[in-house]
Structure prediction request, 199 residues.
Amino acid sequence: MRKLLIIPLLLATLIATGCKQKAATTETPAPTDSTAVEEATVPNDSIHTEAYISQRVKHIYDLVYDSYRKNTINANRQISTEQFTSAEFNNLLREATRLTPKDNMLDIPGADYDHWVMGQDFDKKLSMEVLSVSDIQAQTATAKIRVQNFEPTEVTLPLVLENGDWLIDSFITTSEIEGKKVVFDEKKELKEYVERLKK
Prediction:
């Protein structure tokens, strides 16, 4: 008899607790100022931390560089670097390749060098160091890295969150030409190049 009484009591307790929790969640006030709203859109999880993003970028470069050293990059399709760059970046590069005559492939922005090594060839001591991670938002972030390939080159990597992880959306470098700083944003240049060819 006691066992039969315990079951209805447990059910009643669970229902009452559930109602209180529901009431508590519906009564939570929404953020009022714009700063609070923006902060609320950034998930508070491990994938949105500087540590995770830094590790993710390093892991991408480690995989690419390891394949370069083993000479497996795109050669026998063991690894494709497209899996590490954003869908928009990949689509722009494909479109630029499709629209460009075969004899003029070097006209494609970035075609005269390899953005992974920042050169046309790579040193056996090729390495990459993550310098900083900043501007972490719900779907975007920025990483600054230094590629050591014969000489050091600093690169800014805009990142986007796609398919559950961070991907590189562009490769941005700054160089000095005739005393002037020149910024090369590969994705921006590809977009402008494709737009010109479509006119």
